[in-house]
Protein DETOXIFICATION
Amino acid sequence: MEAGERGVEEAVGGRGPGHLHPHRHLQPQRHHAGLRRPPRRPRARLRLLRLHRPRRLQLRPHGMASALETLCGQAYGAKKYHMMGVYMQRSWIVLFVCAVLLTPMYFFAEDVLLLTGQPPELSAMAGKVSVWFIPLHFSLAFLFPLQRFLQCQMKNFVNTIAAAAALCIHLFVSWLFVSKLRFGLVGVALTLGFSWWAITVTLFAYVTCGGCPETWHGFTVEAFAGLGEFVGLSAASGVMLCLENWYYRILILLTGNLKNAAIAVDALSICMNINGWEMMIPLAFFAGTGVRVANELGAGNGKGAKFAAIVSSTTSMVIGLFFWVLIMGLHDKIALIFTTSAAVLDAVDKLSLLLAFTILLNSIQPVLSGVAVGSGWQSTVAYVNIGCYYIIGVPMGVLLGWLFNLGVLGIWAGMIGGTAVQMLILAAITIRCDWEKEAMIASTRMDRLSQVR
């Protein structure tokens, strides 16, 4: 591996064999090796580069695939099993076209990074590596619909087994490309692409070779009909989830531009990692809630959908309260698993209150988003996200962080305010919802889309 590439890889956090999930939060590094003694602020930006990596484009197909969760979930509840395979094929078409349209960003990654103020050497290396992420980029256009398709049939065990098998392959391929052949960052990109294509091929083989006899009846030209409405729902889903995912990335990027940003970035990285770990629980509720609500609405059972939303929200909130108490009680010790630096430990201690409330809010908000996905409210939630996150949260964070000189505390507090407003609005929409009317809307949608030829 070349010296410059090694420095960049260390600075942004090398990809070990265990890094298989493409949407994990920023991971803190216990070592802080970088380019040779760069200034503090650029050095902090080095640790934040992974927020600009090409995989952020993958959030778009990830979000657009949630439209399939709405349609397949409601079709399964309505017992229109044959339409689930048609919907998945429509999703493949839409996401493949989307992937093609986004591909030029991988070729111009260096120019984009330079425009955002990243160091030239780092931008050049990222531009060199980004094109090798294209295979991964296209794999997700097919993988996400397959996962949603199986999830809506309560076949999550298939996704789990495929991921476990791919992880074993990933360990070997990662060792081969990164450690043995020393391909460096290019090897990391190739490894990730290989691993995700392995999952995709495994799930595709399961679906098409008899694993889903009721819902997969083979390829059909029917998939090319009715794409207009499907694209509309997919686009709304993509915007909704992109706005949510990018929100706290902005927090970290803003922190990287503060004075004495190195310690602030280290502390915030630790907090975001802890938050990311805990977020796996409400994200599981997000997926489960979306499927259950969609199933019940598709079956015409509005009361069942309401009950599923209440149970999921309450359970996730109780779990969030547990972690809130845990963080508050261990506020001065939670960072010890990451670092022994007294300065960083003290900084994390000061941020622990905000971390606790972020975890509490994020225990409810994803579940409400799951209700929205199951009900087909993606466009409404997208508008709510724009207003709460980018009209309230970000400006408030900038105001508190810079004008009132509160630094990262102010930025984060302001953005928590945006999340709180969003949660209250989604809660109000859910509480005031006429579930019987939503069941009728779902039934009408299923009839309309299933009749398209």
Q: What stands out?
A: Residues 1-46, 48-58 have pLDDT under 50 and may be disordered. DSSP finds 19 helices and no strands in the chain. Residues 240-453 form one domain.
